[in-house]
């Protein structure tokens, strides 16, 4: 999804020319024209998004300095935002700051990321992130997945200071080991809601397993050792979640049967699964095209849940936090289409993304102001994806 070495091929304002409408003529004068401002270029939107993300970095509980971008949802642990959301949200915001052009020359951004590196690295010692836990609904896996992706990306971007390197290397080892230990027995993949007991078999969640596969591929590409068997099991787990048409189930323990009536709620995980498998060398052009087409057809069903209360609501079981996850992976999926199809789909995607941008230049999927950091980060990453020259080169 996220870590594509990209050059921004910004779609210029000529794709979105200002709309000019004549107004009634003023008394004694000629008609006056009113101009509806054009939406910003990708470069302008990314620049503003980066500035907004930096400004939203905050102090965590008991901290003296701003190090975090916690994702806030309705789920709480002991009445507090779960640690997995704190590390996961911080990592995703940091990935956007790293991926946006100009990071190496932006001292303010570099300082913000350096503070985030310290937080994510030291979080390996937090008991609430231990891979040894009793099961149930738990989101620590988002910290394992995205903490790993962020620290690997930070090293690749030369954003890790010499003094930070030992802690970062130790944290990378911890997060990778946590994924190994929390893999779903027998089925493969990962899940954030399972029965009690680490050995209790349960279904795999493609929503979570797809980015975990991307994490494993990024770690391997960085030169670290990742079990080929683990990658193969993860690929198999994701393939099991796909129906024949391209539909992807919410959870799966066995090969999935198509459920066309639920495709409107499945578009995000459909794009994510196809992107992850493509990055693993298991891409299917027909399935990728189907996922992109269905994203454009049904994204308004996700919009109905954005900034709304509650989580999984009928008829499609869509929660607000699913919104920008779907957008970011749709942008990545477009980059795996044949080159002749990308420009038109990028333009269509860009127009859709700017429909849901808030007036202050941020994007937010929740009723909580804090989570604008996540939505903006995912949107920046989506815009960066649209400038990818070859999405397979980093793998």
Describe this protein's structure:
This protein has 395 residues and is mostly helical. The protein has one domain (13-385): Glycosyltransferase (Alpha/alpha barrel), CATH 1.50.10.20. It is built from twelve helices and four strands. The strands form two sheets. The chain has a two-stranded antiparallel sheet. A two-stranded antiparallel ribbon has the order 3-4. α10 runs antiparallel to α11 (339-355). The termini are close together. Mean pLDDT is 88; it is low at 1-36 and 389-395.
Give a quick precis of the structure.
The protein is mostly helical and 395 residues long. The protein is built from 12 helices and 4 strands.
CATH topology: Glycosyltransferase
Q: Roughly what is the average pLDDT, rounded to an integer?
A: 88
Taking all Cα atoms into account, the compactness measure Rg is 21 Å
Helix vs. strand class: mainly alpha
Order of strands in the sheet with most strands: 1-2
